[in-house]
Design brief:
The protein has 114 residues and is mostly beta strands. Helix content is 11%, strand content 61%. The protein contains one helix and eight strands. A hairpin with a 2-residue loop joins strand 3 (49-56) and strand 4 (59-67). It starts with a helix and ends with a strand.
Amino acid sequence: MKLAGLALAFSLAASPVLADPVGRYDVEGKSPDGSTYSGTATIERTGESFRVTWLIGKDKFVGTAVGNDDFFAVAYRSGNSTGIAAYGREGDDWIGVWTYTGGRQIGAERLSRR
């Protein structure tokens, strides 16, 4: 079992960076409370991880992500708020779900490549 976990971790780390999430995006989403929002996001490679920065209205969210060309997951912070998001590829875009730390409902988000 440990060997399988190591093999998976190695394969993710060694994945080719052909279509990873690095880039600039337009953001459209729906918060857990049902309200909608829009903004922009930038994803940058930082070694084996990624830095994700969202600008939604006057709020800036910054996160650290792991993943590859099929998916990525982000732990993020804005002021005192923290949370997690997970995204899957849909063509050139990314479709995701997210919640605040301790949340009981999820939001949804689309990152459309610029």
